[in-house]
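re: ur question from yesterday

yeah so i grabbed the chain u mentioned. its 126 aa long if i counted rite. heres the sequnce exactly as i have it in my notes:
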Amino acid sequence: QVQLVESGGGLVQAGDSLRLSCAASGRTFSTYVMGWFRQAPGKEREFVAALHWSGGSTYYADSVKGRFTISRDNAKNTVYLRMNSLKPEDTAVYYCAADRQARWDSARAPYAYDYWGQGTQVTVSS
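ran it thru and got these structure tokens back, copy pasting raw so excuse formatting
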């Protein structure tokens, strides 16, 4: 059974940094695409970043490019989202997701992902 467990969220001030973790278990994820999404109250789930586990290719939403970095640790089966220069508009619940078919062309689409974590809250105060 696939499990994705996010951690690392919290309350920070604008300009601060956070690192989110997504611990993956139940499969070998080496051929998966892993994604981070976020959802603010009253808004739709929004793509943040994606990573192709085997090749290491990455892809970012324009709103976070240059501030956020997605990475992986093969030994720990964990995907990270390093978030720098946080802004109040980054406030949301952040979700980790896994696409077993590795549909890179659809990496920003929530429907492409088969597995989701429970989410971790990130709140950025001004």
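noticed a couple things. The chain is about 0% helix and 50% strand. also The mean pLDDT is 96.
anyway ttyl
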